[in-house]
Amino acid sequence: MLAVRPVPLAQGVPMTQALVDGCVLSANYALIALGITLIFSIMNLLNFAHGQMLMIGGFMVYYVYGVFHLPFALGLLAAALVLGLIGAGFERFLFRRVLRVATREENSMLLAVGTALLLENVALFLFGEKQRGVPETVSGVVQFAGAFLPYQRLEVFLVALVLILGLLYFVQYTRPGRAMRALAQDRDAARLMGVNVDRTAMMGFAIGAGLAGLAGGLLVTVQGVNAGIGTDISIKAFIMIMIGGAGVVGGAILGAVVLGFAESIGYAYLPGSLTYLLIFLALILFLVIRPRGIMGHPWG
Amino acid sequence: MNKPYFAAESISVRYDKVQALREVSLVCEEGTCIALIGANGAGKTTTLRAITGLKRPFAGEIWFEGSRIDRLSPPEIVARGISMVPEGRRVFPLMSVRDNLMMGAHLRRDGAGIRSDLDRLCDRFPRLRERLGQNAGTLSGGEQEMVVVARALMARPRLLLLDEPSLGLAPMVVRDIARLIVAVNREEQVSVILVEQNSRLALSISRHGYVLETGRVALAGESAELLVNDHVRRLYLGAGAEAEAS
């Protein structure tokens, strides 16, 4: 796994450093997992392009903040809006028709893979292959309990936390959020309540994509971005929802926490490539025992 | 030409090659409760699905409050004042009882009205008030039936469709539900179309009845008369054994 590797900053005590890094990573991963879970729960569709969407979000911040020197917040806004539009567009013009007429689930899956390739190649064409980074938005390091935490990472952690809480509030307490939950749990019953399935699905896809974009915009401040990171990120997203349970919000967060800490602890104590080898092996074993994930529901 | 309050005129519905309904006509006058009875597979649920827009009939018309509704989508039909309580107690299992009820009011925009309706329904169903915060999937069958009826009522419908509300419920619970339907019909002036396999129940609380057999209306009339009709008694009221014994 080449991209998105948390580099321990200084020689802090490995375990405390790993725990601190794990928190930051988990928060960012939770943003990713929640986005893909939202799309999956409403449309029963695995967004293969999720990693590419994150990558594009990173590039939005790179250009708005890094190149044009506009405020970082504006860059994040751009990331959210651009990806929201892409997500809405995908649902409206690509997936809506295919999901309605497709006789096999594989058709929508192939389309999803196609969208990933589309976004990745458009990005390569527009942005090129080079790795990009952005200057710090806030400098300095805070040290506590034997660990070093750069303010940049703390900012990423806090912003991610706010976004996660905002999403949870939206899903739990607002009318459109409730409609999305209802649609995910019983499509026909939701229609009988008057829920506009098309519009709700489009909103869900837009929000899910927007979350990926925001995650990418945050991540670029910590480890840059290049046009090729999409696939690795998507794989991590799949791992998280497989661990936590697909289509369940609690499962997404749980999966993110598990992966975030597994990764940071692994990188602190093990040689680089061994970490993900062990993660994959553990995942395979885990899925044999519990295919639905920790909080997932049995299929059917 | 004056149309009845609610009328299905000669509707026919097809699922692929199978014709589920053949020229079914029924009428519901304002404020009345009518029953639709018949065996499994006779077409009762299909009729309700046609009315709510889940399955469009290929022939015939459906009229409600003076306008034609058979070409509308489910959200449009709900907006017109028709709510359905689906078969099988389709609560949203992972949502609280309160959220389930709020979903019933999804198309409404009057916050104060929604809250007061929620209150009123909790008065009518005290058991729901106790369980407002609980996930609907964890409730008993009878409680879930209350949730879905209350949920449908949250839309302030003028016509309520019920698909086999007594299915799988204990007799005492069925009695409660029946009393509920009658109360809703009389006190809230909600017209009711009740689909039931429990024919005795349906005919005893409705004014008119329709008997569906293999997609056709085989018999129609006042429920009181259908209750003593020979054919109905033999096939749907379990009077066959007595008839043979006598």
Overall number of structural domains of chain A: 1
How many helices of chain B? The count is 11
The biggest sheet of chain A amounts to: 2 strands, antiparallel
Spatial separation of the terminal alpha carbons of chain A: 33 Å
Indicate the radius of gyration of chain B in whole angstroms.
Answer: 18 Å
Are there runs of chain A of 5+ residues with pLDDT below 50, and where? none
Q: Encode the helix/strand succession of chain B as letters.
A: EEEHEEHEHHHHEHEHEEHHH
Low-confidence stretches of chain B: 240-246
Q: Which structural class best describes the helix and strand composition of chain B? A: alpha/beta
Shape of chain A: globular
Helix content of chain B: 25-40%
Q: Tell me which CATH architecture of chain B applies here.
A: 3-Layer(aba) Sandwich
Largest interface, C-beta within 8 A: A-B, 16 and 23 residues
Averaged pLDDT of chain A: 89
Strand order of the largest sheet of chain B: 6-7-8-3-9-10
According to CATH, what is the class of chain A?
Answer: Mainly Alpha
Please identify which CATH superfamily of chain B we are dealing with: P-loop containing nucleotide triphosphate hydrolases
Describe this structure in words.
The complex is a heterodimer of chains A (300) and B (246). With 300 residues, chain A is an all-alpha fold. Chain A has eleven helices and two strands, in the order H-H-H-H-E-E-H-H-H-H-H-H-H. Chain A has helices at 14-43, 50-67, 72-101, 105-127, 151-173, 175-185, 187-192, 197-223, 230-244, 249-269, 272-289; strands at 141-144, 147-150. In chain A, strands 1-2 form a two-stranded antiparallel sheet. In chain A, helix 1 (14-43) packs across helix 9 (230-244), helix 3 packs across helix 8 (197-223) and helix 10 (249-269) packs antiparallel against helix 11. The longest helix of chain A is centred in the N-terminal third of the chain and has 30 residues, at 14-43. Chain A is globular. By secondary structure, chain B is an alpha/beta fold. Chain B has a single domain (6-245), classed as P-loop containing nucleotide triphosphate hydrolases (Rossmann fold), CATH 3.40.50.300. Chain B has helices at residues 44-52, 74-79, 97-104, 111-124, 126-130, 141-153, 171-187, 199-205, 223-228, 230-236, 240-245; strands at 6-15, 18-28, 33-38, 59-64, 67-68, 82-85, 159-163, 191-196, 208-213, 216-222. In chain B, strands 6-7-8-3-9-10 form a six-stranded mixed beta sheet, with helices on both faces. In chain B, strands 2-1-4-5 form a four-stranded antiparallel beta sheet, covered by helices on one side. In chain B, a hairpin with a 2-residue loop joins strand 1 (6-15) and strand 2. In chain B, helix 3 packs parallel to helix 6 (141-153). The longest helix of chain B has 17 residues, at 171-187. The model of chain B is unreliable at 240-246 (pLDDT under 50). Classes of the chains: A mainly alpha (300), B alpha/beta (246). Chain A binds chain B through residues 175, 178-179, 181-182, 185-186, 188-196, and chain B through 52, 54, 74-75, 78-79, 83-84, 86, 90-95, 99, 102-104, 106-107, 151, 155.
